[in-house]
Structure formats: structure tokens, C-alpha cells
């Protein structure tokens, strides 16, 4: 019987003022991962100390980047959300998977006309970010696709009559209205050679103190249909290092002086570790709980945060 790999536990910051001060002095840039339940807030409740921590970091001239895998909202949407919660931020500090995807399509893929449209499985956040880069798209929140599939749909999709010949990319994100018709269209675009992108592969979405299907659950049916010979989607969100490359390109920073703050081992902490950041801070206000890395699988034990705080507010508590 093989023994489990020994896990080096994180340095506990909660209640240790000296350790907190040393931690803050060590880094120049802090990347907060955000979601409805996570690092900064839950629903409409901001965790105690959140605003005070952000204000303290700004006083110390620390660069803050808000990184999120949630593709349903644009950067402007998140700015409005933060304003409503009383959390100080500006649009340039917000980096989401929808924005990362739009940058990749416009500046990396550079799809040549006429096959330069994107078929979206997702919500208005993706649409807004594609518009910001002047990228043409179909699907998304189109109300004509929010219906059951019909016999005529099967025939039209199979013949290609229902397909837009200008689609050269399929982008899969969290779609609250995903259905058989949308998945069928997406698959047939991919089968005809469209590039496959995914905003992120989070299996679950925390909300209302429980878990719901995440964006990764939207792309899985397509991955299964395409089969093992297909390389799968290019992932634009955490833990993909492509997202960190995009962030670094925008903000120009030394990765060794950056720390990732998050509430998930499999995305946030892994993202910081595999991207070569100087540190990772796990917080217990979201999916991850203290000690999860001890009884978890090998992947969990490989992604132990370097530091731990019960909540972000403990950095000023």
C-alpha cells in the first residue's frame, strides 16, 4: 500500500500579527479571486474586514487585481456590484474570464474573415466583453434559442442550413439557459472545425451556501461528444496559466512579488502555484475549509496554500 505524500501545512495568519505583517511586506501585488461566495462577499453581505484590508493594501501601495472565473458578468457589471457593496475598485483592476476570452480571440486567434464569428454558450457578460473588442458573435442570450429542439431543427442542423458559415469559434461559459438546441449547434460548429474555447472549467458554482453546476459543466457534454481524439477546449480562466500570461501582460509585474488569494484548491491555489507566483493565501469563507488538503486526493495535496486565514479581514483583525 502506497503512503500518502506528506503535506507541509500553510502558515496560519489568523491571530498572528507578526506573521501578518511579514506576509504583507513580502508581496507587491495581491490577486483576489472573487465570486458570490468566496473571498470578499457572500450574496449581498461583505465579509467583516474586507474593505479595511483593501484600504490598508492601497495605503501600502500594493497593486490589487480582482480575478474571477465567473463569465456571466462583464468588468463593468462587477464594478457596479462592487460599488453597491461599498468595495473600492476600478474597472482596470478587474480581470475576468470573459474579458480574458475576448482578448485571446481578438489578439491571439485573430480569426480571418469571413469565419470570424463566435458562437457563445453563455450570458451577457461574455457578449459585453466581445463587443468591447468589436468581435462579432451569435448565440449567447439570443431568445430564439431558448426553446425545445424540434424535428425541423435536427434536419436543419444536420444539413448545415441552421448553421452560420461565418462561425469560426465556439466559446463555452456559464449559461443559465443551456439546452439541447444550443449544445447541438455548438457541437456541429466544432465538428466543422471551429476553435473550442472555454471561459473556465469550474465544475461547481457556490451560491446561497451550497453548490450548483459551474461553467465546466457546460463544456463537458461537448468534450464527451468530440471524443478523446479532440484536444478539448483552450481554457481562458483559472487555473490556466494563459490567464496569468494575459494579466502579466496588462499589469507588468514581478511574479515572485505577487500573491494569489482564493478559496479553492483546484483553481485559485493551483493557479497561483502553476503560474509561478511568490505565494498563495487560502481563506475559509468559500469552498475551501482549513485542512481540506490533508484528507484530499493527490491533486489537493499538491495545491496547499502557502498561507491561511480564516477570512481576508483577519489581515487587519
List the keywords:
single chain, seven-stranded parallel β-sheet, 317 residues, five-stranded parallel β-sheet, alpha/beta, 12 helices
Task: Give the gist of this structure.
The chain is 36% helix and 19% strand.
Principal-axis shape: elongated
Q: What is the CA-based Rg, rounded?
A: 21 Å
User: What share of residues are in beta strands?
Assistant: 15-25%
Q: Provide the low-confidence segments as ranges.
A: none
Mean pLDDT: 90
Description:
The chain has helices spanning 17-26, 50-59, 75-85, 97-109, 124-132, 151-159, 180-191, 216-226, 241-251, 265-274, 292-295, 298-302, and strands at 11-12, 29-33, 41-42, 45-46, 63-68, 94-96, 117-121, 137-139, 167-172, 195-198, 204-207, 210-213, 234-235, 258-262, 279-283, 307-309. The chain has 317 residues and is an alpha/beta fold. A seven-stranded parallel beta sheet has the order 1-16-15-14-2-5-6, sandwiched between helices. It has a five-stranded parallel beta sheet with strand order 8-7-9-10-13, sandwiched between helices. Helix 4 packs parallel to helix 5 (124-132). The model has no long low-confidence stretch (mean pLDDT 90).
Record the SSE blueprint.
Blueprint: E1 11-12, H1 17-26, E2 29-33, E3 41-42, E4 45-46, H2 50-59, E5 63-68, H3 75-85, E6 94-96, H4 97-109, E7 117-121, H5 124-132, E8 137-139, H6 151-159, E9 167-172, H7 180-191, E10 195-198, E11 204-207, E12 210-213, H8 216-226, E13 234-235, H9 241-251, E14 258-262, H10 265-274, E15 279-283, H11 292-295, H12 298-302, E16 307-309
Parallel strand pairs: 1-16, 2-5, 2-14, 5-6, 7-8, 7-9, 9-10, 10-13, 14-15, 15-16
Antiparallel strand pairs: 3-4, 11-12
Helix pairs in contact: 4-5, 7-8
Amino acid at each position: 500500500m502506497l503512503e500518502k505524500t506528506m503535506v507541509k501545512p500553510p502558515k496560519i495568519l489568523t491571530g498572528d500579527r507578526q506573521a501578518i505583517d511579514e506576509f504583507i511586506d513580502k508581496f507587491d501585488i495581491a490577486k483576489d479571486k472573487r465570486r458570490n461566495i468566496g473571498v470578499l462577499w457572500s450574496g449581498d453581505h461583505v465579509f467583516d474586514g474586507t474593505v479595511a484590508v483593501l484600504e490598508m493594501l492601497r495605503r501600502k501601495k500594493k497593486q490589487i487585481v480582482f480575478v474571477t472565473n465567473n463569465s456571466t458578468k462583464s468588468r463593468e457589471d462587477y464594478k457596479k456590484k462592487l460599488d453597491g457593496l461599498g468595495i473600492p475598485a476600478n474597472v482596470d483592476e478587474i480581470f475576468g474570464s470573459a474579458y480574458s476570452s475576448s482578448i485571446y480571440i481578438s489578439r491571439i486567434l485573430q480569426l480571418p474573415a469571413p469565419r470570424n464569428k463566435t458562437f457563445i454558450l453563455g450570458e451577457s457578460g461574455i457578449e459585453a466583453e466581445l463587443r468591447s473588442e468589436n468581435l462579432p458573435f451569435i448565440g449567447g442570450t439570443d431568445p430564439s434559442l431558448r426553446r425545445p429542439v424540434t424535428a425541423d431543427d435536427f434536419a436543419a442542423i444536420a444539413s448545415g442550413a441552421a448553421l452560420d458559415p461565418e462561425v469560426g469559434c465556439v466559446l463555452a461559459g456559464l449559461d443559465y439557459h443551456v439546452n439541447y438546441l444550443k449544445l447541438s449547434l455548438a457541437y456541429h460548429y466544432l465538428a466543422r472545425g471551429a476553435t473550442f474555447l472555454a471561459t473556465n472549467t469550474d465544475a461547481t458554482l457556490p451560491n446561497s451556501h451550497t453548490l450548483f453546476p459551474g461553467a465546466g459543466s457546460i463544456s463537458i457534454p461537448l468534450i464527451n461528444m468530440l471524443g478523446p481524439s479532440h484536444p478539448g477546449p483552450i481554457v481562458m480562466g483559472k487555473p490556466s496559466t494563459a490567464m496569468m500570461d494575459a494579466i502579466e501582460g496588462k499589469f507588468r509585474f514581478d511574479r515572485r512579488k505577487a500573491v494569489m488569494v482564493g478559496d479553492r484548491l483546484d483553481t485559485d491555489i493551483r493557479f497561483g502555484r502553476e503560474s509561478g507566483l511568490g505565494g498563495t493565501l487560502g481563506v475559509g469563507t468559500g469552498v475551501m475549509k482549513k485542512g481540506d488538503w490533508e484528507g484530499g486526493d493527490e491533486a489537493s495535496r499538491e495545491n496547499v496554500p502557502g498561507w491561511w486565514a480564516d477570512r481576508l479581514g483577519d489581515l487587519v483583525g
